[in-house]
C-alpha cells in the first residue's frame, strides 16, 4: 500500500523543520509496508521505522516518569548523542529538568543523526506541573537554535528532530506552537476505509 498522507508530510519537511507536533489519533495502529507485507504498528514503532528509513542513525524516546529509551540504534551512538550511558532495552530515568539538558545535547550533536520522540506529552503538565513551563521554554529555545547537519552516513542535511506526541493540538501552549515557522504541526486522522481494509486483508492471510 502507499505511504500514509501524514507520514509523507514528515518526509517532506524533515530537512527544514527542527520540531514536529503529531496530534489526534495517536493511540491507534498504522499500516507500514515491510517486505511485501502490511504490518500494523503503534505510533512509536511506525515513527521509529520511518525515521530509520530517512537515514537517522539513532531514534530515542522520552516518556514521563520512565525516562529515555533507545528505539533504534545502540548504546555507543546514544552515548555520543546524549553524553549519557543509556543501555539498550532499559529506561534511563530522567526528570523533566534533566531531560531538557539531555535533549539540548541531542539537538546540537554533530556526531550522530538523531531523532527524539516525546511520548505522552499531553500528560506532562499533570505529572510535573512545577517544571513544565521551564521545560517548554528550554524546548522552545532548542527549537530556535537548532541547525541542520550532514552526518557521515547521510548525503542530505537534516535536523536532529524532536517529535511531540499529543492528544489535541491545543495541548501545546499557544505561544509555542502558533505561527511558529520552525515547527510543523501534523494531525493524524482516523484511518479511512481503504487503510482499514488493507490491514484486515493482510491479517486475514495469516
What tags apply to this protein structure?
six-stranded mixed sheet; 22% strand; two-stranded antiparallel sheet; 206 residues; 8 strands; single chain; alpha/beta
Strand order in the largest sheet: 5-4-6-7-1-8
Percentage of β-strand residues: 15-25%
Measured distance between first and last alpha carbons: 18 Å
The rounded Rg comes to: 17 Å
Fraction of residues in helix: 25-40%
Number of helices: 8
Describe the sheet with the most strands: 6 strands, mixed
Stretches where pLDDT is under 50 for at least 5 consecutive residues are none
The whole-number mean of residue pLDDT values reads: 92
Summarize the structure.
The protein has 206 residues and is an alpha/beta fold. The protein is built from 8 helices and 8 strands.
Please characterize this protein's 3D structure.
The structure is a single chain. By secondary structure, the protein is of the alpha/beta class. Helices cover 36% and strands 22% of the residues. It has helices at 5-13, 43-53, 75-82, 96-108, 124-127, 132-145, 174-177, 193-204; strands at 19-24, 29-34, 37-42, 58-63, 67-72, 114-118, 162-166, 183-188. A 6-stranded mixed β-sheet has the order 5-4-6-7-1-8, sandwiched between helices. Helix 4 packs parallel to helix 6.
Q: Helices, strands, pairings?
A:
Layout (H helix, E strand, L loop, with lengths): L4 H9 L5 E6 L4 E6 L2 E6 H11 L4 E6 L3 E6 L2 H8 L13 H13 L5 E5 L5 H4 L4 H14 L16 E5 L7 H4 L5 E6 L4 H12 L2
Parallel strand pairs: 1-7, 1-8, 4-6, 6-7
Antiparallel strand pairs: 2-3, 4-5
Helix pairs in contact: 4-6
Amino acid at each position: 500500500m502507499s505511504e500514509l498522507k501524514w507520514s509523507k508530510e514528515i518526509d517532506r519537511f524533515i530537512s527544514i523543520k527542527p520540531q514536529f507536533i503529531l496530534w489526534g489519533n495517536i493511540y491507534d495502529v498504522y499500516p507500514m509496508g515491510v517486505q511485501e507485507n502490511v504490518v500494523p504498528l503503534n505510533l512509536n514503532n511506525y515513527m521509529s521505522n520511518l525515521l530509520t528509513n530517512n537515514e537517522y542513525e539513532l531514534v530515542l524516546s522520552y516518556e514521563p516518569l520512565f525516562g529515555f529509551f533507545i528505539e533504534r540504534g545502540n548504546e555507543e551512538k546514544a552515548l555520543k548523542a546524549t553524553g549519557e550511558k543509556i543501555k539498550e532495552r532499559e529506561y534511563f530515568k530522567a526528570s523533566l529538568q534533566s531531560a531538557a539538558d539531555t535533549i539540548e545535547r541531542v539537538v546540537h550533536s554533530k556526531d550522530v543523526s538523531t531523532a527524539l520522540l516525546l511520548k505522552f506529552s499531553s500528560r506532562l503538565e499533570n505529572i510535573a506541573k512545577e517544571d513544565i513551563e521551564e521545560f517548554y521554554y528550554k524546548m522552545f529555545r532548542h527549537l530556535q537554535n537548532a541547525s541542520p547537519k550532514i552526518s557521515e552516513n547521510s548525503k542530505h542535511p537534516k535536523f536532529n528532530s524532536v517529535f511531540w506526541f499529543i492528544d489535541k493540538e491545543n495541548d501545546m501552549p499557544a505561544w509555542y506552537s502558533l505561527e511558529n515557522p520552525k515547527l510543523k504541526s501534523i494531525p493524524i486522522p482516523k484511518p479511512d476505509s481503504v487503510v482499514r481494509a488493507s490491514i484486515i486483508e493482510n491479517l486475514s492471510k495469516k
